[in-house]
């Protein structure tokens, strides 16, 4: 018998891992790891906004991180050059401001821990629908724009000279990243969103010969991590979000250790 | 020359942190021309190229390009992130509007078809330069821009590459703009030389530039005579084998 109460969170997690595979690969290739963190931390401001204006929290979250992505767009190249002090300031100050304003919003109770570390079991059907719709749209865009997105990642200058719309593609990638960060929040939480984006592609790297393989494998590893993490969470009553990240890390370590053995064959 | 003008640069001025990198640079490139920019390190060669390509902002002056000008650009350096697994084929496939047929043609033409499925991260300097050249050629360029095309290439490879350049011009009917720090290596392959040191010191045919006082002042006498040997060698390098036989 299908037990519907765990089907919803599992679906949400699997769908997110599916889209996080290719997007996370771009995060790894473009050295945007810290950038993802900043987006996630800043998204807490979106929640504050949502609480204060009493609009749908998921929507507020999306608006918040998309706005932040637009503000941060010019900073991306500095982040890639790892002149990241500025980004560090933005990242942690937005997190702190979010926490402070949330605590000041008197009379309103927000499940802060849920947002920081994820609350997968609180995922509702409406969240899954959000994730599914946004996820499949993004997946479609990534497949449709795969070559151009890869071209600007390999060399933005060559892409520019060849006539690719580099700025528009960068913006597209950033908006998708903001969206996936916002949607991942309920699953793994603000503090662990980057992990869901980065660890699966990193684990997939050693086994892949092409960018496409790496992205697909990252999706598969992410989905496996979600399943294993949730299983562990039910079995030992551990928090779901961190359990998923632990599972992903386990797979990563296993693959790194096994890789030389696999290659020898 | 009545050929189509591809690029016209007027009175370029570019400063970086109060330091003038380029000033009073004006030049034009016409279809079918091969132009080489030479100059010492830090003279603004690569910057000038980047300005012409539209990658740098100017403080004054203007660059006019022919509408829809197709440019193939081979950068001096392009380091790829090892975290992206990428074969030569998939790298070339990222060129805009490219056809597989053309990739196969250029891989063969440049003698690198054996590299097709190799990872771009394991190529030698010379191999990588050829792959970058192939990528530039895949743009079917009206203007081919080569920034220090022989960097990290052995002398044999350099000679091969420079003998290829006039052939490419004839085959594609394009103009070629090169950057080099060595006039005598490129002499036989170029129509016009622009000697750059922040501004244009002198320009003209390679023979003229090589005896121009401004050029000699910039490069010094000894630097000029030493590579001349290479230049002479270049002229008769195809007869090397016969020479050996005659001596026997």
Strand content of chain B: 25-35%
In DSSP terms (H or I, runs of 4 or more residues), the helix count of chain B works out at 10
Q: What is the annotated CATH architecture of the largest domain in chain B?
A: 3-Layer(aba) Sandwich
Largest sheet of chain A: none
Main features:
heterodimer, A: 265 residues, mainly alpha, ABC transporter involved in vitamin B12 uptake, BtuC, 13 helices, 82% helix, globular, B: 248 residues, alpha/beta, Rossmann fold, 9 strands, disordered C terminus
Please, could you describe this protein's structure?
The complex is a heterodimer of chains A (265) and B (248). Chain A has 265 residues and is an all-alpha fold. Chain A has a single domain (4-191), classed as ABC transporter involved in vitamin B12 uptake, BtuC, CATH 1.10.3470.10. Helix content of chain A is 82%, strand content 0%. Chain A is built from 13 helices and no strands. Chain A has helices at 4-29, 33-53, 57-72, 76-80, 85-104, 112-117, 125-144, 146-154, 156-162, 166-188, 193-205, 211-236, 240-264. Chain A is globular and about 55 Å long. By secondary structure, chain B is of the alpha/beta class. Chain B has 2 domains: 1-70 and 143-235, P-loop containing nucleotide triphosphate hydrolases (Rossmann fold); 86-140, no CATH class. Chain B is 39% helix and 25% strand. Chain B is built from 10 helices and 9 strands. In chain B, the strands form 2 sheets. Chain B has a 6-stranded mixed β-sheet with strand order 5-6-7-3-8-9, sandwiched between helices. In chain B, strand 8 and strand 9 form a beta hairpin. The radius of gyration of chain B is 19 Å and the shape is globular.
